[in-house]
């Protein structure tokens, strides 16, 4: 399944994307804002991630921006199982920050969740030291339901986070 917005394409990831994914995500400022991504992040990590089969409860898409000088991989977004629910998660390379790409891509993924997958509710979370992610989720209509300590593989510890929900 692909999705297209005004400036972006959300597409499946393929084995040959490992180098581009590693280049885009392997920034300490990115991975320290994510729960499951190690630091340092290598092409081998990307290849291992890409080798995992997609399951009915997990959906991951690369985010490709269409710019004047061509298309470039700027991030990743997905839905994955979180207990009985689906959790929205995303990351973007630093050169893509502050341009509205996260909101645009997340809006497309919420539409997929609602219309293509028939989901009625999504959850998400962000670390409190990443308020930009909180603003993205608020624009989509997520509301905070609580705060908790959440694991961060890159930091090797738990980090204060906010938990949110979106009723579809």
Question: Can you tell me about this structure?
Answer:
It is a single chain. With 168 residues, the chain is an alpha+beta fold. It contains 5 helices and 8 strands. It has an 8-stranded mixed beta sheet, sandwiched between helices. The protein is globular. The model has no long low-confidence stretch (mean pLDDT 96).
Count the E strands: 8
Largest sheet: 8 strands, mixed
Q: Which value, in Å, is the CA radius of gyration? A: 15 Å
| Strand residue content | 35-45%
| Unreliable sequence segments | none
Helix content: 25-40%
Number of helices: 5
Structural class: alpha+beta
| N- to C-terminal distance | 20 Å
**Spatial order of the strands forming the largest sheet:** 1-2-3-4-5-6-8-7
Mean pLDDT: 96
Tell me, briefly, the overall form: globular
Helices and strands, in order, run as EEHHHEEEHEHEE
Write a concise synopsis of the structure shown.
Helix content is 27%, strand content 38%. The chain has 168 residues and is an alpha+beta fold.
Top keywords for this entry?
8 strands; 168 residues; 27% helix; globular; alpha+beta; single chain; 8-stranded mixed beta sheet; 38% strand
Strand and helix layout:
Layout: E1 3-4, E2 8-11, H1 18-25, H2 28-31, H3 43-51, E3 59-67, E4 70-82, E5 85-92, H4 101-116, E6 121-127, H5 131-139, E7 143-152, E8 157-167
Parallel strand pairs: 5-6
Antiparallel strand pairs: 1-2, 2-3, 3-4, 4-5, 6-8, 7-8
């Amino acid at each position: 399944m692909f999705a297209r917005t005004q400036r972006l394409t959300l597409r499946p990831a393929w084995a040959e994307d490992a180098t581009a994914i590693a280049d885009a995500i392997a920034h300490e400022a990115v991975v320290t804002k994510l729960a499951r991504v190690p630091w340092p992040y290598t092409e081998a990590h990307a290849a291992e991630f890409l080798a995992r089969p997609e399951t009915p409860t997990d959906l991951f898409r690369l985010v490709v921006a269409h710019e004047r000088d061509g298309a470039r991989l700027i991030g990743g977004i997905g839905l994955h199982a979180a207990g009985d629910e689906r959790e929205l998660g995303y990351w973007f390379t630093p050169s893509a920050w502050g341009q509205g790409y996260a909101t645009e891509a997340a809006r497309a993924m919420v539409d997929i969740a609602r219309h293509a997958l028939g989901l009625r509710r999504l959850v998400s979370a962000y670390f409190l030291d990443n308020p930009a992610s909180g603003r993205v989720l608020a624009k989509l209509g997520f509301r905070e339901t609580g705060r908790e300590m959440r694991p961060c593989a890159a930091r090797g510890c738990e980090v204060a986070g906010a938990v949110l929900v979106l009723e579809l």
